[in-house]
Amino acid sequence: MPTDIVMPQMGESIFEGTITKWLKKPGDKVQRDEPLFEISTDKVDAEIPAPAAGILQDIRLAEGATVQVNTVVGTIASDGESVTPKSTPSVAPAAPAQAVPARKESAPAKPSAPAVEPKQPPQVSQEHQEEEHARSSPLVRKIAREHNLNLAQVPGTGLGGRITKQDITAFLERSQASPAASTMPSAPAPAAKSVGSAPPAPASIPGDLVPMTQMRKIIAQRMIESRRTSAHVHCMFEVDLTRIVHLRNRNKSGFEKRNSVRLTFMPFFARAVIITLQQFPIVNASIEGESIRYHRNINLGIAVALDWGLIVPVQKNADELNFLGLQRGISDLGERARSKKLKPDEVEGSTFTITNPGQFGAVFGLPIINQPNSAILGVGGITKSPLVVTDEDGNDSIAIRSLVHLTLGYDHRLIDGAIADQFMAQVKKTLENWSEEVG
């Protein structure tokens, strides 16, 4: 008996999901628990594993379809069963590929047209198969199609070999500079112009109207709701991180060998925030109607930038973890966010959020509060700068120090400016006078 593939129940509050990508095609062999398709819900994007081993017999619902949980979306036949892969409209490129020859056949005056047109569908199908086997975002695949590029030839630097936008633009630039290495020797001049545009630019296909992804729709909705809900105010503090930078440089190699996890700066900020939130519980609180909810625990949201959007996984009960526990938890959540392995309850229930625009070079940011939190900390880039320092005798001198700018975005309905400034002053003091063992 074939095994049904169903849209899974990803959490008590989730009732539907959108199929964003099939990772296999009918006739492909699959292993139990092997990633089979990707979905997007209002909580999280995730890869869904195969419920059984066998042959993917059919795909019943196309990429882009939004369906209720427990809906059958395909079937898997066991290895011993005879399988006839069913042709369904679930592979999105099939319909437009057939439409082109249909229009050409209506013009019998040119007998040479049918000889040329049939070459197109196999080419599109081949590109689709190559793209299905390459881990990449829809934007990357669109760039590849525009440049007639085989993604299998592009080395990916993302997690698990994922091909990022920077990977494909760099590959195209190298191809342009070295025609012998190019996969598109007859590429027209407009393609070369698009390669010359700045890689960080968000829009790489000027003039196109592209539908928002499900995740982008949710981000847009929540950002507007947060601005309408909270009275946003920001304060910024400059923090001398020299002591922590030296501590990390001395310990990062041994830390990774002992604990099998990289030593980053994020757990330093997280620990400083946790220590300070315990002294200022109002910053960890939420507004419920006309009441204030003081949370028993500190559930720390850590914003993670993805190729396809932004997500905030939550380290639950972060106040119960030591430094090593925080580093492990933050690294694990970040890796699983990028590989679409998070569960819905791992992106819910935060009481305070940290975001890190500094990783992209920003000096500071003015972050929007992650509802229903009352505050969010933005971490800027760590840079070396000259600073006036005063010794114990009161003598001033100029020294090169490692500085970071921390910005607290807070809801002025709940948190007064004086409290916010005192909170940040204590975070600054904790970081500048760091004395905790890193493990």
Which features does this protein show?
globular; 22% strand; alpha+beta; four-stranded antiparallel β-sheet; 439 residues; seven-stranded mixed β-sheet
Average predicted local confidence, pLDDT:
81
Structural class assignment: alpha+beta
User: SSE order in H/E notation?
Assistant: EEEEEEEEHHHHHHHEHHEEEEEEHEEEEH
Report the portion of residues in β strands.
Answer: 15-25%
User: Counting H and I runs of at least 4 residues, what is the number of helices?
Assistant: 11
Give the CA-based shape.
Answer: globular
Please report the total strand number as a whole number.
Answer: 19
Radius of gyration: 26 Å
Q: How is the biggest beta sheet arranged?
A: 7 strands, mixed
Uncertain segments: 89-134, 179-202
Q: End-to-end distance, in Å?
A: 53 Å
Helix amount, in percent?
A: 25-40%
Report what the structure shows.
This protein has helices spanning 94-105, 112-116, 120-132, 138-146, 165-177, 189-195, 214-229, 242-259, 266-279, 323-338, 417-432, and strands at residues 3-6, 16-22, 29-30, 35-40, 45-49, 54-59, 66-68, 72-77, 232-240, 286-288, 291-293, 300-302, 304-306, 309-311, 314-315, 352-355, 375-379, 383-390, 396-411. A hairpin with a 2-residue loop joins strand 10 and strand 11. The chain contains eleven helices and 19 strands. Helices cover 32% and strands 22% of the residues. The longest helix has 18 residues, at 242-259. The strands form five sheets. Strands 9, 12, 15, 16, 17, 18 and 19 form a seven-stranded mixed sheet that branches. Strands 1-8-6-3 form a four-stranded antiparallel sheet, with no helix packed on it. Strands 5-4-2-7 form a four-stranded antiparallel sheet, with no helix packed on it. With 439 residues, the protein is an alpha+beta fold.
